[in-house]
Amino acid sequence: MAFADARKFKGHHVVKVTASERITPHMVRVTVQGESLHRLPVHGFDQWFRLFLPNPGGVTDFSRVPEQFGFGAYMKYLRTKAGVRPPFRNYTVRSLRPDVGEMDIDFVSHGDAGIAGPWAAQARPGEELMILDQGRGFDLPDDATEVLMAGDESALPAVLGVLRDLPAHIRGHAIVEIPDAADQQEVEGESQVQLDWIVRDHSDTVGQAALKAFQQLVPTAADTAYGYTVGEQQLASAGRRHLVAQGVDKRRIGFVGYWKRGKAEA
Ligand SMILES: Cc1cc2nc3c(=O)[nH]c(=O)nc-3n(C[C@H](O)[C@H](O)[C@H](O)COP(=O)(O)OP(=O)(O)OC[C@H]3O[C@@H](n4cnc5c(N)ncnc54)[C@H](O)[C@@H]3O)c2cc1C
Question: The whole model's pTM is what?
Answer without folding.
Answer: 0.96
